[in-house]
Fold:
Amino acid sequence: VQLVESGGTMVQPGGSLRLSCAASGFPVTSIGMTWVRQAPGKGPEWVSRISTGGGKTYYAPSVRGRFTISRNNAANMLYLQMDNLKPEDTARYYCARGWVPDSGDWRRDFWGQGTQVTVST
Structure:
């Protein structure tokens, strides 16, 4: 099982980015998936979740209306479209297999290596 994130870079406030997560070893349709972010010196924060069937999506209040989670089942990929980015969105972003946290367990063994997003002028 492997997750590889990409697409992070530096962007100005108000800009957009699309993060990608390539999954291997399991079909993304088999389990719900989560995008998590962690800023330096802070704990992890779940950003968005998508259900196993893909029909339900959930967003943290801090990103609702600006971020969109999606999935390409044929390519076995997970995406996070991020619009109207703010400096407080600066963090390392990870995709995770399953919904995390799970009863307080962030299950870091099920995360990818992450991709850095920096929002700054």
